[in-house]
Design goal:
2 domains; alpha+beta; Aminopeptidase; four-stranded antiparallel beta sheet; homodimer; Alpha-Beta Plaits
Chain lengths: 444, 444
Amino acid sequence: MRDNYLEEYYSFLRFPSVSTDAKFADKVRECAAWVSQKLEKIGLESKVVPTPGHPIVWARNKHRNGRPTVLIYGHYDVQPPDPLELWDSPPFEPVLKNGYVFARGATDNKGQIFSHILGLQETIEKNRDLPVNVDLVIEGEEEVGSQNLGKFLTDNRDALKCDVVLVSDTGMIARKTPTLSYGLRGVAALEVKVTGPKIDLHSGIFGGAVTNPATALARLLATLHDQNGHIAVPGFYDDVVPLQDWERESWRKLPIDPDSEMLEETGAPSLFGEAGFSTLERIWARPTAEINGMGSGYQGPGTKTVLPSHAMAKLTFRLVPNQNGDAIIDLVKKHFQKNMPTGVTLEMTSGHSGPWYLTDPHNKFGQAAQRALKKAFNKDAALIREGGSIPIVSDFRKILGVETLLIGLALQDCRAHSPNENFPLENLEAGIRMNQAVLEELAG
Amino acid sequence: MRDNYLEEYYSFLRFPSVSTDAKFADKVRECAAWVSQKLEKIGLESKVVPTPGHPIVWARNKHRNGRPTVLIYGHYDVQPPDPLELWDSPPFEPVLKNGYVFARGATDNKGQIFSHILGLQETIEKNRDLPVNVDLVIEGEEEVGSQNLGKFLTDNRDALKCDVVLVSDTGMIARKTPTLSYGLRGVAALEVKVTGPKIDLHSGIFGGAVTNPATALARLLATLHDQNGHIAVPGFYDDVVPLQDWERESWRKLPIDPDSEMLEETGAPSLFGEAGFSTLERIWARPTAEINGMGSGYQGPGTKTVLPSHAMAKLTFRLVPNQNGDAIIDLVKKHFQKNMPTGVTLEMTSGHSGPWYLTDPHNKFGQAAQRALKKAFNKDAALIREGGSIPIVSDFRKILGVETLLIGLALQDCRAHSPNENFPLENLEAGIRMNQAVLEELAG
């Protein structure tokens, strides 16, 4: 099998399965068909399930009572390749250079889900069966918000009953270092609009006599934090579960230098965050209040001496266990109302939200994953959380009632979502071993 | 003469002399020619002086030694009439309704400068001469920044040597209340840009570990004022000349209700300004720090969870005697530098500036103007300052070395710059009387 997996991987990568652009809809469908046929070829029962958007490929082995059921999730859709001029080779013509395959989707997520497929194939070729019951759910809309996945899970809740979900769509903390992500932050959005005069005013004729809404908004936003980077909204941290000692300890020992990596990646002149916490703690285990956008008055070239009629800011709060999105938004609204400058009105609109995720990496599934990762990589797994949010993980918990093992294979320099996306073949091969080891360990 | 002045006023108003729009350039030139011919018809020597932009009309009577020289300034260009659909009648087809003439330019400035022209005409018809030497300078670029006026004044400095300038391009405090504006605020602009990461970052993956530039900017802008509306930049008020008792007293007695008018005009939910000062004091005699525009990150619909790379704000400061624009900008820059949040860099760019203006309404010219206004309106003149800036007034002081008497005839509801601009005939007639009375009083 190893002889021609590269050619098959390339075939998978050649589909421009860009989910966000309607002009690629045919290619997305062809890609789904290709995945489904591949899964049938390796001995699984597979079908392409239509949705109002792009189809979901759903495959399974013959389920047998008395053994665990594992749902492996992935996606075959990819990000748009733009800007094309920044690619060294065409995004949908994979090339191998120094052990790295360059193509859109090489890592995210075709390479990672393909390593699972190859792992299953090898096991079936060797043992004629898998050690556990497996469902593969490979969707085509992850890059556009997985809008039809929830309904698919709900519609097929009974058939998809399982013990645990495996997802390889996150990162490895460093090269050759297997990584189990056991936590994600949640998110809650709030838009704030401050209105003063009914129209933009002449700042000479009126300036001084009425509140400037941009000034009012700036003063309001300045109340979000104190000087030490703590969020100053009363009650904001009340439900935050303190970091556990083993986590602080284990993150401190990770084989990375988070501060210099963060400086390098962001290009920020220096790091800054909540006093009393390390960089990793700040992004993985502490909530934030971020301004995503802010606007008021005249933003074009030169000067326009207006006193703006209104000013707005878009905020998102990253949440950690056990914060509740609705409760946090309520606290912030109350805080803003209490700190309202005079002379303006305040409109606040809640936006989308998604819950945080935390699973115990030391429960039986977590332990099985750790043992498997050690077997596949010959190295202890790094146990980390991530700062972002992965809504599908909450769907698996909410709809199927199960935990998710996030065992991603992406490296920092794989350039997911960017030009020159690439995937090292050593990770593809590690993924094959990882798939086999995890299923064995979960079989018990 | 009175019989046909309305028809001539209408002819003047029918020219769409919109200076900002190149497609009206011919009409602007025709309008200048019409004005110049009118001035010749009443017995003045007049010429149309070309500039790189729109021409300047320059007329004068025969100057005689031993009597004062008065420069009367006005402009024949007008604001664009848009939005057209909000006009009740076409902007360049003047109509008379209940004593008000509706047309673009009816007040600003054709009506006001025409009343001066009619005043001169009447005096010449009666006395065959004017009581003083007069220069009329009527430009065509006031609405686009008077960019060629300064050079015209400099080029003709000797010929334009005069004792005082008369300008009717400001407002009357109330109907039938003659008004002498003796002060204007200056202005100084500063643009501030705060930069953090080199590109917009994912707020989940990076949020918490680096400074958010929008938050940093908000915190910086919040240091501009204290809670009582005072500007909190150290040294900002050092050069401010305190209001004089007679001014406070006289403004308090003005026949207007500034607070309710301000609420009505602005539509702001309430008034707010520097503690310890009335509304009129705040806009006429106190400096301000206004945010004219502010922008950062994502401002479109919905949510985009970015941590923005940068944030900017455009500021203007209104200045009062004896503040110096450059010195104020330096103080603000120092203040911002001192209050810089960590983790970001700060770029500050000074913009345009213009000096404040203050003349003593009780000097000999001011007294002459007050007597003349009382004669023309049969009521004591209100002595006021204005919150805006009129750069030409500084040009007259700087280039010609003379003071300006601002004796405007615009009412609040004349809608200068807006649809349905109008001018009451009673103001046109009062302007005729005012022109005659002022020249008589200045003749001594």
